[in-house]
Write a structure and sequence with these properties.
The complex is a heterotrimer of chains A (308), B (390) and C (508).
Chain A: H1 6-15, E1 21-23, E2 41-43, E3 49-53, E4 58-62, H2 67-75, E5 79-80, H3 91-97, H4 104-107, E6 114-120, E7 126-130, H5 142-146, E8 155-162, E9 164-165, E10 169-175, E11 189-194, E12 199-205, H6 207-218, E13 223-226, E14 235-238, H7 241-245, E15 257-260, E16 265-268, H8 279-292
Parallel strand pairs in A: 1-2
Antiparallel strand pairs in A: 3-4, 4-8, 5-9, 6-7, 6-8, 10-12, 10-13, 11-12, 11-15, 14-16, 15-16
Chain B: H1 7-11, H2 24-29, H3 36-49, H4 55-62, H5 69-73, H6 80-93, H7 100-108, H8 112-127, H9 133-136, E1 156-159, H10 163-167, H11 169-181, E2 186-188, H12 198-202, H13 206-219, E3 227-229, H14 232-239, H15 241-245, H16 248-255, E4 257-259, H17 260-265, H18 268-274, E5 280-287, H19 290-295, H20 301-306, E6 310-315, H21 329-332, H22 334-351, E7 355-358, H23 361-368, E8 374-375, H24 377-389
Parallel strand pairs in B: 1-2, 1-3, 3-4, 5-6, 5-7, 7-8
Chain C: H1 2-13, H2 30-43, E1 48-49, H3 52-57, E2 73-74, H4 79-91, E3 96-99, E4 116-119, E5 126-130, E6 135-138, H5 144-151, E7 156-157, H6 170-176, H7 183-186, E8 193-199, E9 205-209, H8 220-224, E10 233-240, E11 242-243, E12 247-255, H9 258-270, E13 277-282, H10 283-293, E14 303-311, H11 313-329, E15 332-337, H12 341-352, E16 364-367, H13 377-390, E17 394-400, E18 408-412, H14 419-436, H15 455-458, H16 461-474, H17 494-497
Parallel strand pairs in C: 2-4, 3-4
Antiparallel strand pairs in C: 1-2, 5-6, 6-10, 7-11, 8-9, 8-10, 12-14, 12-15, 13-14, 13-17, 16-18, 17-18
Helix pairs in contact in C: 1-2, 2-4, 9-11, 9-13, 10-12, 13-14
The chains are: A alpha+beta (308), B alpha/beta (390), C alpha+beta (508).
Chain lengths: 308, 390, 508
């Protein structure tokens, strides 16, 4: 149990105990899972890094902090988090959207990044979930429940995140006209993107291992350095890794695409049709919302089931 | 009921569960009542907490194969075999296990001439198809005549035992030929040491076993020749006389006992130098008898001895899990015993071997009854030696 | 039919003595007879045991908690069997407690209030290996190590490797969100479970999560993993397959002083190296383990570290050198690298048998599982030895040093009067000290019943209220493994679901 930081207490006071409320981050994924209902009051989560412990490989940060600003600070010690960087995107926004970084193969999903969350409950009180350590199974896992919940169960004010060492060497390369399955032998691949023709790969790790993988790739075909990931089409499809690897077979409606190989996300030109959800899961989602937010005041209008 | 178990041995289990995957009955039933950890907890409940001895508790004890696979898996070295033998002794003493017919049958093993004659009759009955061999776990064919045992020298004793001598004397003779090929003079124990008492201690007949142990020790006293044993169960039993009787004499006796492979493994060069051999062209899977692997812990000697004589010796991938024979277990608990054996035959099939080498007659009979081609390891060595001689 | 069923039920209930048909069924009453009859009808007599011995054993796990009290024990063979058992239990107003191999160390599988116990050991099959999606579907009773062995031909494995992996089940791992040495780099169970088929408290079957990158809705499988059987019963689990690393280096570092070993751990992490595992054992633990494993652990060192780095060969060599260098700078007296897979396997066997080997020192042990910031290990260990000395006890320290997850084993002999109280007092101090350092109550063993009453030392009333909402969303009836994890004031109507618990630990 902790004495809460002033910024957090102030945030709780602003959220208050009454009336519909939503949190504005960088508005990068603002319409994900639905627009906030009309008349919903907008608040902002506090900003700033509370404590960065490079030797512990954790950082305590307020939810309103831009991810880019956080990563800039961590980079000084050669570290970063698993959160995706989007122009203007905040830590809280990234966690609530629950969408992982394009380097998910190397960094892991966002759902594994959150170690502790302090959030404002529907009744205006501050709750703490998880622990201040890198490992913890004390009680039920509220942290994972919160990630991707679009702020519909609680409004996150401050979090403790796991950090990772940035690879000693990092390189994006393009392999023209290759089957993405051929890249499987690369152990340092942190991202494998495929547009139906070319494969783009982010290699990250010890320089000697990255060089090793580069020569392995060179043996497969014409391999050239590129500046970074390509421009991604606007819509995000979520599927299984196998479906992503076979995407062109069914992409009539999707137009040009970039598939994240080994992950199961495809960036496409058209939105993904709604995914079927079994009734039992719908019912459980309803019960969670009802139990955690009985008055329905947290981000009304948004529903994680409606995320693609 | 006080089971008469040593309190320090009984408390040594911390219930970690690492024995579970090594217990053949737990692996089959998935029930704690059929696990080493569960059986120990029940022993404690009875001895320390005064729990009544129910039928179900007795079943829990009776279903144990006494393979002692749990002992080698136990980081705290709980002497499970002793605990189970003690429990069975207490239960048999109270008349709760080992019915009269079983006691009578076991008593016969002490009477060598009776056993030999009875076996000949049985062999005859089998030839005449009067006995359902498969159902009773008996060999499909038993010898009507046994070539006589003969003494070739005085370097070592070869322990011949009871049922094995009656049913598988060929194995003793093969073992003797191999020893002789290594330049060792052999005296078979024959009537001097009729039965080691392994089956009796398993059945909880402690007093009887002690009497039999003394008889064997008397018969083989007078010198300190090594006593070589070609049946893993008997070897384990003889090696345990020190603990069973608790005397210096018994401990000294047990120190003279060696599994024949264990003894030969250190003399392979002699064997090879005397008789150059061509290895048999076959793939042989080594089945580790529990009483060689978990009790004597000498199982590695078998592949070592077989190595020079068989082209392809393969190990099984089942961590030495019991085959379900367990002395009289296959007769007393046919259902469990068969289920356990199925795992072993599956492991043999995975190994790709055509022949199984087993250093214990009980295992060998049990596995042969499932249709496997099972030989004693030294029968294979003997075969290789005689083929080379020709 | 009815007569056959009645006979089967009588057999299942057990009798006191062979041939004594009039003997009362121990510690069961008429309600149980009706319950057992329904269970037998639902899943067959060979899958139900209600005799005293079976219930006695189903009442305990590997913890020192001995107050569990099992009702009838069922051994379901399929999801349909589990559904049927949950239905029958609900009809009789009884709770249901699932059980894997019973290797848990916090009493999580110890049933409270005579629930129907579902022993999942017969559901032990590997259902499907899907290499295209990097997933395997397994039944909950499958043993952790059996899974990795079955996966070996495909060059992949299941990463979480609890010390009990040779015996513990995947279902138990899911319930406890189990860890293990290699979770330092690879993450605990929750990071390796993609989907779970669950039988809910109303006997409906729901699949939580799926094989996609981001399943729709709330992360329900995330919320389910680690819920200690209180949210439903897992009947199939989709686990993530991890590629076997191309190279592995296992190093054994020994030290004259425990503090030097602890300082080495903090320095490795601070240097930005993420080894696959960093394990520590102190001298007393090494001695207990070495007797069994004969792995070549140095008995004269005050502490040893087992450090494993894996990945592509080049990086492994560099990381290995850096680790050895850091150890030398922290006064390591020796650094040995396992020469081959065999030596490596023996070292790990030694480490993983540590809890089980305690009886080489003392017959009983009480164990905590707190986590502390890994930068404070030196200080924390000094405090532990000080606390234990003050209470005149023996401690064996063996733990996942890399993530600060302590396992101080208080070894004692419960037959010595007064020891139990001293052990409890020392345990309490260790927990409070860990929490004061900014730590957590448990890193991988779970709360169960043993650590339940410490929960409000770590969490506020608001926090616990939120946790109990999670549980109630899954199980509004509070019927699944009631009475665990949450302290009594926060466990919804669990107490109502518990039958008046008869205190008798032994039948008769």
């Amino acid at each position: 149990m902790a004495d809460f930081d002033e910024a957090l207490t102030a945030f709780a006071a602003e959220v208050g105990t009454d009336g519909p409320v939503c949190v504005r981050g960088g508005r990068t994924r603002w319409s994900l899972g639905g627009e906030a209902s009309p008349g919903t009051r907008e608040v902002q989560a506090p900003e700033g890094i509370v404590a960065f412990e490079p030797a512990e490989m954790t950082v305590r940060v307020r939810a309103g902090t831009p991810v880019a600003a956080l990563h800039e600070e961590l980079a000084a010690d050669g570290q970063r988090t698993a959160l995706p960087e989007r122009a203007g995107g905040t830590v809280g926004g990234a966690l609530m959207a629950g969408e992982s970084s394009i380097a998910r193969l190397g960094l892991g999903p966002v759902r594994d990044a959150l170690l502790q969350a302090r959030y404002v409950c529907a009744d205006g009180r501050i709750a703490s979930a998880g622990a201040g350590t890198v490992k913890n199974v004390s009680g039920f896992d509220l942290c994972r429940l919160l990630v991707g919940s679009l702020g519909t169960l609680g409004l996150v004010g401050e979090v403790l995140l796991r950090t990772f060492p940035v690879g000693e060497a990092e390189r994006w390369v393009r392999l023209a006209g290759t089957d993405p399955g051929a890249v499987r032998s690369c152990y340092t691949a942190a991202s494998v993107l495929w547009d139906g023709t070319d494969v783009l790969i982010l290699l990250s790790g010890y320089a000697v291992d990255v060089d090793d993988d580069l020569s392995r790739l060179a043996a497969l075909g014409n391999c050239e350095d590129v500046d970074g990931p390509p421009e991604l089409p606007p819509h995000r499809w979520v599927c299984t890794p196998a479906e992503a690897a076979a995407f062109d077979a069914r992409n009539g409606a999707a137009g040009p695409f970039v598939a994240e190989i080994g992950v199961g996300v495809v960036h496409a030109s058209q939105p993904q049709p709604p995914r079927p959800v079994e009734p039992g899961v719908v019912e459980l989602n309803r019960r969670f919302k009802e139990r955690f937010d009985p008055p329905g005041r947290l981000n009304p209008g948004r529903d994680p089931l409606r995320k693609p | 009921m006080h089971l008469g178990l040593d309190d320090d041995e009984l408390v040594a289990c911390v219930a970690c569960g690492l024995c579970l995957p090594h217990c053949p009955t737990f692996v089959i039933t998935g029930r704690d009542t059929e696990s080493p950890r569960g059986r120990i907890a029940l022993m404690r409940a009875v001895q320390n907490e005064g729990a009544p001895v129910t039928d179900d508790l007795i079943r829990s004890m009776e279903t144990c194969v006494q393979c002692r696979g749990c002992e080698t898996a136990c980081p705290s070295a709980v002497p499970f075999g002793h605990l189970m033998e003690g429990t069975r002794a207490a239960l048999a003493g109270a008349g709760r296990i080992t019915p009269r017919w079983q006691r009578l049958a076991l008593r016969m093993l002490r009477h060598r001439q009776l056993l030999l004659a009875g076996s000949t009759l049985l062999a005859l009955a089998i030839r005449l198809r009067l006995v359902p061999t498969r159902r009773l776990g008996l060999p499909a064919r038993m010898p009507l005549r046994r070539p006589p045992l003969r003494t070739s020298g005085g370097d070592v004793w070869l322990f011949t035992g009871c049922v094995m001598d009656a049913w598988q004397r060929d194995v003793h003779l093969a073992v003797q030929r191999v020893l002789e090929a290594a330049g060792v003079g052999v005296e078979p124990t024959g009537g001097a040491a009729p039965c080691c008492g392994a089956l009796h201690i398993h059945a909880g007949l402690e007093a009887e076993t002690k009497a039999m142990a003394r008889r064997v020790m008397d018969g083989l006293s007078g010198d300190d020749r090594p006593i070589l044993v070609d049946a893993a169960g008997c070897g384990a039993s003889l090696k345990d006389y020190g603990h069973l009787l608790g005397t210096d004499e018994a401990r000294a006796f047990s120190a003279r006992v060696f599994d024949v492979h264990e003894w030969l493994a250190g003399r392979l060069d002699e064997l090879k130098s005397r008789t150059p051999v061509e290895p048999l062209d076959m793939t042989v899977a080594v089945q580790d008898p529990c009483h060689l692997r978990h009790v004597q812990r000498a199982h590695q000697a078998v592949p070592a001895v077989l190595g020079p004589f068989v082209a392809n010796v393969v190990a099984l991938d089942d961590d030495g899990l019991c085959c379900g024979a367990g002395g009289a277990y296959s007769v007393m608990e046919p259902e469990l015993s068969t289920a356990i054996r199925e795992r072993k035959t599956a492991a043999v099939a995975r190994s790709g071997a055509t022949v199984v080498a087993s250093a214990n007659p009980g295992c060998s009979l049990h596995l042969a009854a499932a249709g496997l081609d099972v030989r004693h390891p030294l029968e294979l060595v003997d075969q290789a030696l005689s083929a080379s001689r020709r | 039919m009815a007569r056959t069923l009645a006979a089967a039920t009588r057999r299942v209930l057990g009798s006191r003595r062979r041939g004594d048909r009039s003997a009362a069924v121990p510690a069961t009453d008429d309600t149980d007879a009706a319950l057992v009859a329904d269970l037998v009808e639902a899943i067959g007599a060979d899958r139900v045991r209600a005799d005293a011995a079976a219930r006695y054993l189903a009442s305990r796990d590997a913890s020192i908690y001995k107050e569990g009290n099992a009702g009838p024990v069922c051994y379901p063979g399929s999801t349909a069997d589990v559904v049927a058992c949950v239905e029958v239990a609900a009809r009789h107003g009884r709770a249901v407690s699932p059980r894997g191999a019973g290797t848990g160390l916090a009493g999580g599988a110890a049933p409270l209030g005579q629930p129907v116990v579902l022993s999942m050991t017969r559901m032990d099959r590997l259902l499907e290996i899907d290499l295209d999606n990097g997933v395997a579907w397994v039944q909950p009773g499958m043993v952790n190590l059996d899974l990795s062995r079955a996966l070996a031909p495909h060059g992949v494995h299941y990463a979480p490797d609890p010390s009990s992996q040779a015996a513990c089940t995947i279902g138990g791992n899911v319930a406890n969100n189990s860890g293990g040495p290699h979770c330092l780099a690879y993450g605990v169970t929750s990071a390796h479970v993609l989907a779970v088929e669950v039988v809910m408290s109303d006997a409906s079957v729901v699949t939580l999560g799926d094989l996609t990158a981001e399943p729709p809705g709330y992360d329900l499988r995330g919320a389910f993993v680690g819920s200690e059987g209180m949210c439903g019963i897992a009947t199939a689990v989709a686990v993530r397959l991890t590629r076997n690393p191309p190279a592995v280096r296992t190093m054994l570092l020994s030290f004259d002083d425990v503090s030097d070993a602890a300082a080495t751990v903090s320095a490795i992490i601070a240097a930005g190296i993420v080894p696959a595992a960093i394990e520590m054992m102190d001298q007393r633990c090494v001695t207990a383990v070495e007797d069994f494993a004969q792995a070549g652990y140095p008995r004269d060192a005050a502490a040893v570290l087992l450090v494993e780095v894996d990945g592509p060969a080049g990086g492994v060599a560099i990381a290995g050198e850096r680790v050895a260098d850091i150890a030398r700078r922290n006064q390591a007296i020796s650094a040995r690298t396992a020469a081959d897979d065999d030596e490596r396997a023996r070292l790990w066997k030694g480490r993983k048998s540590a809890f089980g080997a305690v009886a080489n020192v003392m017959p009983d042990y009480y164990l905590h599982d707190t986590v502390v910031p890994r930068t404070r290990l030196v200080e924390v260990l000094e405090r532990i030895y000080e606390i234990v000395d003050r209470h005149d006890l023996i401690v064996l320290n063996v733990f996942h040093a890399g993530d600060g997850n302590l396992h101080p084993i208080l070894a004692y002999d419960s037959r010595v009067p007064g020891t139990g109280e001293r052990v409890q007092a020392a345990g309490r101090e260790i927990i409070e000290m860990s929490l004061d350092m900014g730590g957590a109550l448990t890193g991988e063993h779970g709360i169960g019943v043993e650590k339940r009453e410490y929960m409000d030392r770590m969490f506020s009333a608001v926090d616990l209220d939120q946790q109990s909402r999670l549980r109630a969303s899954f199980d509004p009836h509070c019927r699944m493994n009631p009475g665990k994890v949450l302290p009594s004031a926060h466990s919804c109507s669990d107490i109502g679901a518990l039958r008046a618990s008869d205190a008798a630990g032994v039948w008769g």
